[in-house]
Write a structure and sequence with these properties.
The protein folds into 2 domains: about 190 residues, Ribosomal Protein S5, domain 2 (2-Layer Sandwich), CATH 3.30.230.10; about 170 residues, Alpha-Beta Plaits (2-Layer Sandwich), CATH 3.30.70. Helix content is about 40%, strand content about 20%. The strands form 2 sheets. Strands 1, 2, 3, 4, 5, 6, 7 and 12 form an 8-stranded mixed sheet that branches. The protein has a 4-stranded antiparallel sheet with strand order 9-10-8-11. With about 375 residues, it is of the alpha+beta class. The chain starts with a helix and ends with a strand. A hairpin with a 7-residue loop joins β9 and β10. The protein is globular and about 65 Å long. α3 packs across α5 and α8 runs antiparallel to α9. Bound molecules: alpha-D-galactopyranose (GLA).
Length: about 375
């Protein structure tokens, strides 16, 4: 139902009020994994899977949220402080909590949400939900923020309300993406530059169907391990509050003082920053071969050093590497499952997608979902 009019009709029928409609996309990350919370570089793309929200005011002081995907409605008292309950409504109510904390008075409203970002697949369904809710609520109260600030507020929903200690990448790209472009983001100062994706290159997303969750234990464990390595470097030469500030020479000097796992995690993060900047430069000069080579290197680093992959994702990448038309393939997102991202020559994309699906199913017995996507605009109001 990627159709705002269908959502409008649904909202009208349920709440008897004409809504404002907003949309926020999911994302795929081309390169730069687990670098965002180390104040490093990432290069994601907003995709044509998105969450839509319809919002209208209420006069009874209630917040009523209908989630079409879950077929469920939840009601809250707009005057009460929201409390997290490990439920999908934590994302929209987390937005309410953070905006209220910023001094906004949030009135009662009806909100209908619908999305097609696959859940738990590493394509940032939760960021899309946060960003679209923030945009909808802000439009209701007649307030606005610059997009980078909006992204930061939505990241705080995860960090402070939901309890997931993620970085800024997902919320940032959902709020700031641009059609046909990848975005190189400096996660330190949130400056970014856009690099066009060539028209003859397709973005193929292959879902291993292995569920991933960043609220689970692996993501925070990896984060802790890499930060422990950073602390050791910082204790020697100072000025290294984040791995963004560390070098491979630092690792060579003081790596022997680190837990072996911490050393490997830091090696991934430090080298990934270098690869990400190099990949954005290659993309800007149209050197797709180099982009693909860096993606391949990034996958090996993510899998071997960061141990952020899983057997199915490694297989999906290996199978892609055998197929005609592949430019580069790697596991995308928080890790431990989810999707691979494949840059593929456009005229070979259909055959690539079909063959990849067949081979993966034959080896695993799991039927993967494979999508040929395109880079889309970031969040905006539709009506
Ligand atoms: C998840 C988090 C992001 C980022 C990636 C890994 O998507 O939400 O902040 O850390 O994992 O690159």
């Amino acid at each position: 139902m990627h159709d705002p009019n269908a959502l409008r009709s649904m909202h009208l029928a349920r709440f008897h009020a004409d809504p404002a409609i907003c949309v926020a996309p999911g994302r795929v990350n081309l390169i730069g994994e687990h670098t965002d919370y180390a104040e490093g570089f990432v290069m994601p793309v907003a995709i044509n899977f998105a969450t839509l929200a319809a919002i209208s005011p209420r006069t009874d002081g209630k917040i009523v949220i209908w989630a079409e995907n879950y077929g469920e409605e939840k009601t809250f008292d707009a005057a009460a402080k929201p409390i997290a309950s490990k439920h999908w409504s934590d994302y929209p109510m987390g937005v309410v909590a953070i905006l209220a904390g910023e001094g906004h008075t949030i009135p009662g409203f009806s909100l209908s949400i619908w999305g097609d970002v696959p859940l738990g697949s590493g394509l940032s369904s939760s960021a899309a939900l946060e960003v679209v809710t923030a945009l909808a609520v802000l439009s209701l109260i007649g307030a606005d923020y610059p997009r980078p600030v909006l992204a930061r507020l939505c990241q705080r929903v995860e960090n402070e309300f939901v309890g997931a200690n993620c970085g800024i990448m997902d919320q940032f790209i959902s709020a700031n993406g641009k059609a046909n472009h990848a975005l190189l983001l400096d996660c330190r100062d949130l400056s970014f530059r856009l690099a066009p994706l060539p028209a003859d290159v397709a973005l193929v997303i292959a879902n291993t169907m292995v569920k991933h969750s960043i609220a689970g234990g692996d993501y925070p464990t990896r984060r802790r391990e890499s930060e422990a390595a950073c602390a050791i470097i910082n204790s020697h030469r100072g000025g290294v509050p984040f791995l963004r500030d560390a070098t491979l020479e630092d690792l060579a000097k003081w790596g022997n003082e680190m837990e072996p796992k911490s050393f490997l995690r830091a090696k991934h993060v430090i080298s990934e920053d270098l690869r990400t900047v190099a990949a954005s430069e290659a993309l800007l000069r149209g050197d797709m071969k180099e982009v693909g080579r860096l993606m391949a290197e990034a996958h090996i680093s993510y899998s071997k050093d960061f141990e952020g992959s899983c057997a199915e994702a490694d297989l999906m990448v290996d199978l892609a590497n055998e197929l005609p038309g592949l430019i580069g393939a790697r596991l995308t997102g928080g890790g431990f499952g989810g999707c691979t991202v494949n840059l593929v020559e456009q005229d070979k994309a259909d055959a690539f997608a079909e063959e990849l699906g067949k081979r993966y199913a034959a080896k695993t017995g799991i039927k993967p979902e494979i999508h040929i996507c395109h880079a889309s605009d970031g969040a905006h109001r539709i009506s």
